[in-house]
Amino acid sequence: MHMVGRARDLLTLADPAIPAVLAEGGFEATVTPDRQILALETEPARPGTAALVGSRAGSQLRGAIAEALPEDLRGGTPLYLLLDDVAGASLVAPWAWSQWADDWLHRMHSAAESGAIEQHRRKMMGVCVGFSPESPVYQPGGRTLPDMNRTVVPLDGNGDPFAWHALSVQDGPSARRARRIEVSLDGPTIRVETHFQDSAPMPEGGRTAVHEYLVRATIDRASLTLTSLEADPRILPFSYCPAATLNIGRVVGTPVRELRQRVLTEFARTEGCTHLNDVMRSLAEVPLLAQRLEAALGAAEAG
User: Fold this and answer.
1) Is residue 87 classed exposed, middle or buried when 0-12, 13-18 and 19+ CB atoms within 10 A define those classes?
2) Is 137 a member of any domain?
3) Beta strands 150-152; 176-186: pairing state
């Protein structure tokens, strides 16, 4: 896999036609089919990223990133957020082949691994709520469940030229993970809307998505604790997956800076959805965005 990541923090004040870019980050990586990082270049360059080459993009990668880039972790930089997502994005990306070949799972395994698909299916049991033993996936006929993917409109076709940074044109088997974290101030409350989508182009044109969440939250400006949380599971692979949203109230009252670790502990395995977990973990960066917004509003009023 050739992975490219881009992110930015964008500030919009009174005139939405004149936004300001506060921070940017990016990376390019080469990753093997079993998700080992063979090469990694970042923008801005960080000497510590050399330690990540050779790592495998699984659960241990996030700890390695925190150790290699401690300043980026503390500062919640766009680069840190991108690298934190390599584990999840690289796991989902091969799904894009499902839009281009009916036998895509078999083509990903050699003849010597004829039983690998079923082994993988069993290995996934218990990873998340969608793969819980009670899920229809593991019931009789589970291997023939209907495809829950859905066609989606282009993210950058909403009439707002600044809503997203320039998105790469994708032709052929490829995948895109897109995230948006939008923060606004409302008196003593910080209002947050986050959007998450995994999608791929289709041979006939357009795009289809396998995961999509919209999450809204409110945070107390004084204490920076989470005061409400709502999740809209728009597109998920299995009918059982939305059950993960029933548990999210557990973290209401948590200081949002603690969410990166608290979510992993609270919603481990069948207690949650790995993709919803990632969306909730991203709320840990809201205090930094809110601080920058407050500073900009204060400067605008003083000017």
Assistant:
1) buried
2) yes
3) unpaired
pLDDT at 257: 94
Helix (H) or strand (E) segment spanning residue 23: strand 20-31
**Does residue 250 lie within any of the structural domains?**
yes
Judged against a pLDDT cut of 80, whether residue 198 lies above it is answered with yes
| Residues spanned by the domain of 186 | 124-302
Domain count, the chain: 1
Separation between Cα atoms, residue 40 and residue 57, nearest integer Å: 12
CA separation for the pair 68, 49 (Å, rounded): 6
Place of tokens 């796991």: 91
- Any bridge partners for residue 179, and if so which? 196
Strand partners, 208: 151, 200
Q: What is the pLDDT of residue 134?
A: 83
Cα separation values, 36 from 12, 42, 97, 290, Å: 38, 17, 19, 36
> Burial, 177: exposed, middle or buried (Cβ in 10 Å; 0-12, 13-18, 19+)?
buried
Longest dimension (CA), the chain: 70
pLDDT band at 14 (very low <50, low <70, confident <90, very high): confident
Q: Give me the helices (H) in the chain, please.
A: 59-68, 70-75, 78-84, 86-92, 104-107, 116-123, 259-266, 274-281, 286-302
Closest to 57 measured CA to CA, from 81, 38, 76, 79 = 38
Rounded Cα distance, 165 and 140, in Å: 45
Q: Would 175 be classed as within a structural domain?
A: yes
Q: How many CB atoms lie within 10 A of CB 112?
A: 7
Q: Is residue 21 assigned to a domain?
A: no
CA distance 276 to 56: 22
